[in-house]
Write a structure and sequence with these properties.
The chain is of the alpha+beta class. It has 7 helices and 5 strands. The structure holds fe (ii) ion.
């Protein structure tokens, strides 16, 4: 249930409100090494992503921005898994990619071209119509199949300047079962 992270809280009958939650990680903080160091994951998940949730719940700052930041990180972290020697897409995720691209290699190439074209902070994602789309800053979208964080905070700690290497490494930790479920 990738979108099911919003807990509605009714404060009183005339003022419906809601609280956001950060989805628990389905792995330990060291499981994504060496793609993400424990430090980088802690900083990204426990500090940055949690701050979007906390600020939204306290009604601080821009509500739409913080809500979208929480929403996107709740799609990002659950789609990762431990590094495995060969992590190729399979099942419905592979079928979906091959419906829209000649091969997984071609898909990765196009994904990288789109990502490297982003100026400033944002996100790049595979959409339910098969296209690769971008998001400036944070925005809530309902058509996300696979998403990569293109904000500097996602890559700077482990990859310094090398965004290309960061993206290449993401393919080593994608949980294709999660992606397959989103396709459906
Ligand atoms: Fe992020």
């Amino acid at each position: 249930m990738p979108y099911n992270f919003i807990k509605n809280v009714i404060l009183n009958e005339n003022t419906p409100s809601k609280e956001l939650e950060l989805q628990p990680l389905p792995y330990s903080k060291t499981d994504l090494e060496p793609v993400f160091s424990e430090d980088a994951l802690f900083y990204h998940y426990n500090k940055l992503a949690q701050t979007y949730v906390d600020r939204y719940n306290k009604r601080e700052g821009d509500l739409d921005f913080n809500e979208a930041g929480a929403f996107l990180h709740n799609l990002l972290f659950p789609q990762f898994q431990r590094v495995s020697p060969s992590n190729e897409p399979n099942g419905p995720a592979l079928e979906f990619i091959l419906e829209h691209y000649k091969s997984f290699e071609e898909f990765k190439k196009k994904f990288a071209e789109t990502a490297m074209g982003i100026q400033g902070s944002g996100w790049v994602y595979l959409a339910q119509d098969g296209n690769i789309k971008t998001i400036t800053n944070h925005q809530t979208r309902q058509d996300i199949v696979l998403i990569i964080d293109w904000w500097e905070h996602a890559w700077a700690l482990d990859y310094k300047w090398d965004k290309k290497k960061y993206l290449e490494n993401q393919w080593r930790i994608i949980n294709w079962n999660v992606i397959g479920a989103r396709v459906g």
